[in-house]
């Protein structure tokens, strides 16, 4: 019988550093929506480490949803909910959340997906809630490492709509949806963790 559980080697490298950041910025009890949960390994690890978090995984891919469901069944965690199908450019859950988490999403999706993620998080988060983004970013238009420049070129060759995003551009776009950059944390493998807070205000500036 085939095992539907997918595995990503990167998860083992970054899951503990991500957990440590989330534990610093989230309350002990929080409703968390993870978008683009992928294999589901992050969901199992992060929910398992903090029982007070009610973790809602999601993904638009049927294969990913099957993997998440299988990991969830194997883990047997009461606070890890059944995965839901969610494309960030579509309809979001109506439930309010203390946190929205997106790990390694922005660089492997079109810029429109980033705009949709920020808009959706702005609406879904309670005042003071956290949008947590993890992945590679450029700073002031420059890559933070030669390996990131190589990775960026490979991404754009695979799909010209993809690519490592500018931290400043993401921050400006977030501000249009009431999200203020609170922390930037350097992470392993030349990645960053970005922590945004829902200010409860939106400037309503049209997207470019």
From TrEMBL:
Gene3D superfamilies in the cross-refs: Vaccinia Virus protein VP39
Coiled coil: none
Listed Pfam families: DUF938 (PF06080)
Source species, domain of life: Bacteria
UniProt-recorded name of the protein: Uncharacterized protein DUF938
Taxonomy of the source species: Bacteria, Pseudomonadati, Pseudomonadota, Gammaproteobacteria, Oceanospirillales
């Amino acid at each position: 019988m085939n095992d539907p559980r997918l595995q990503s080697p990167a998860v083992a490298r970054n899951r503990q550093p991500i957990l440590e950041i989330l534990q610093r910025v989230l309350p002990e009890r929080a409703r968390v929506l993870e978008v683009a949960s992928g294999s589901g390994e992050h969901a199992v690890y992060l929910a398992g480490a903090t029982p007070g978090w009610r973790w809602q995984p999601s993904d638009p891919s049927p294969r990913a949803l099957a993997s998440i469901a299988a990991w969830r069944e194997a883990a047997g965690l009461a606070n890890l909910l059944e995965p839901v199908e969610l494309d960030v450019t579509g309809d979001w859950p109506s439930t309010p959340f203390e946190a929205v988490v997106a790990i390694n999403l922005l660089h492997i999706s079109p810029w429109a997906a980033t705009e949709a993620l920020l808009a959706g998080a702005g609406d879904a988060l309670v005042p003071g809630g956290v949008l947590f983004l993890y992945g590679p970013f450029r700073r002031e238009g420059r890559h933070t490492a030669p390996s990131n420049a190589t990775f960026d070129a490979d991404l754009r060759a695979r799909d010209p709509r993809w690519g490592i995003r500018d931290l400043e551009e993401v921050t400006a776009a977030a501000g249009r949806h009431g999200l203020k950059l609170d922390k930037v944390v350097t992470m392993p493998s030349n990645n960053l963790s970005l922590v945004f807070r829902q200010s409860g205000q939106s400037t309503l500036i049209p997207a470019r």
